[in-house]
Design brief:
single chain, Rossmann fold, 11 strands, alpha/beta
Length: 187
């Protein structure tokens, strides 16, 4: 399928999820992440959920990271440049929702991309080759392309893989893993 078709399909599928199903699937994904061999790293980049888009609740992952005493990095988006600035999450971090309802840090200690070891990547759909479909602005592809080569890229999805995304471009960055409530996909 084409990205445009996949965006519509998976936005519709998400809209059909009840709050209880989102909670259960989010918890299952967080628990499955514990099976990955990634917990010796230091800096973990985590997206904060857009509740209105029925995204995965990442607070379970946040609790795991905090419990393992990891450095947690969150981003602020710049829609003019389609870039992101990354900040260390601390007890003093204040958040504000932007015009797209993305919770973002107001300010804080900026973290250089060279520090980030693991990135949890939001997505709408993914395929068996580790390609993903996001909302279409390219924020994460741009961000991931500037990370160090050994940065681990982990997609999080309520749904299982599509066979193939037809219209992959040279700018699309592949995932290393994608975790669903039922399994871990290795690429």
């Amino acid at each position: 399928m084409l990205k445009k078709e996949l965006r519509k399909k998976y936005k519709d599928l998400r809209q059909g999820l009840t709050p209880e199903a989102i909670e259960d699937k989010s918890l299952a994904i967080a628990n499955r992440l514990l099976q990955l061999d990634i917990w010796d790293k230091i800096y973990y980049h985590l997206f904060l959920s857009i509740e209105e888009q029925k995204e995965i609740h990442t607070e379970f992952i946040l609790q795991i990271l905090a419990g393992k005493d990891k450095e947690i990095v969150v981003s602020k988006s710049d829609f003019a440049t389609l870039g992101m600035t990354h900040f260390l999450l601390t007890d003093n971090t204040k958040f504000k929702k932007n015009e797209y309802n993305i919770p973002e840090p107001v300010d804080g200690l900026e973290v250089p991309l060279t520090k980030i070891d693991v990135v949890f990547v939001p997505l709408l759909a993914f395929d068996l080759n580790g390609n993903r479909v996001g909302y279409g602005k390219g924020f994460y592809d741009k961000f991931l392309s500037n990370c160090k080569p050994e940065t681990i890229k982990i997609g999080l999805s309520f749904f299982e893989a599509e066979d193939k995304i037809e219209d992959i471009s040279d700018n699309d960055i592949q995932l290393d893993f994608c975790v669903t409530p039922n399994k871990i996909n290795f690429f």
